[in-house]
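ingest -> validate -> predict -> emit
validate: passed (alphabet ok, no gaps, 393 aa)
predict: started
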Amino acid sequence: MQKKKRIYLDYAATAPVRKEVVKEMLPYFSDKFGNPSSLHSFGLEAKAAVSNARKTIADVINAEEDEIIFTSGGTESDNLAIKGVAYANKDKGNHIITSKIEHHAVLNTMKELEKEGFKVTYIPVDKYGQVNPKDVENAITDDTILISIMHANNEIGTIQPISQIGKIAKKNDVIFHTDAVQSFCHLPIDVDKFNVDLLSISSHKIGGPKGVGALYVRKGTRIKPLFHGGPHEFNKRAGTENVSGIVGFGKAAEIASKEMKKESVRLARLRDRLIKSVLSSIPGVRLNGHPKNRLPNNVNFGFIGVEGEALLLMLDSLGVAASTGSACSSHDLSPSHVLLALDPDPVKAHGSLRITLGHETKEEEIDYVIKILPGVVEKIRKITPRIEGVTTI
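emit:
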């Protein structure tokens, strides 16, 4: 019996843990199991491992070691950044600025703060999903205490003008946070050049384990902890550290950062080949996001007359794993808030396909997608009821 083809093209959701990372982690489950807060040799051994990982990650983004706070992942990092700053600085004001296309970890945190009396301005984006820095500047008031704009979008891959926004925040003495979960180790990051005060990252997007992330907190930034307990993570995040996970995160960051320049070129070449082929071979399709200023591993198409979920299921039956948007909302059948921000037409937002590449993606896998996708789209269109008035993009 022929083995079923299995092609994974959903790296924005998660990446397979690299073999080198697993090997690095294993001793910290058994032989080197100490608590980093303990003063004996077992504890000191664990503490040293955490410190080594902290230094590795700090070096990747040009930060200091004591500015890296380990968390359980990108969602916690976003919550700690946003709520932590809001609660610590509410004596200065209650106004926060963000964009309409942020990850739900940011947007839902904003909604919770609004219930508590904070005021949030949601900046619109252009047709490519980019924020205009002037809109951010115009939204600043005397009560503005935080700006949170993501570095690169998780659904459409569009890269934001973070350095420009950072300069605006700095000029107006407003704390600036960016969610860099999708861009970490895919794009160069320098916290000083970006003028950011807080930056969220995650392990499992770069070949590390799930359940661990980090938040960069610039020295002097006022932030209130969400957890209360011991003095862990420089008194900013109580709780015994996930040593094995942190070790894995550090190793993944070490590998991915060394490979980043070469790998970004390789993935961008595959990305552009896929985009060119699909746009030329399938009618009624558009590219969502910026045509050039996008993550090297991200492709997002919109197909007229095609339901995104049907497309995913058919591709999966042919051995290809992709998504319609964020993995965090994959069971929600409502249109993507990101795509609706680009174009308010819900019909167009429903027909999206996100393909994201990674370190194990091969050229022949992209060839296979290019080969089967036109037929899949045509088949779905034949069995899908036509929507009156929707014939073009």
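The chain has 13 helices and twelve strands.
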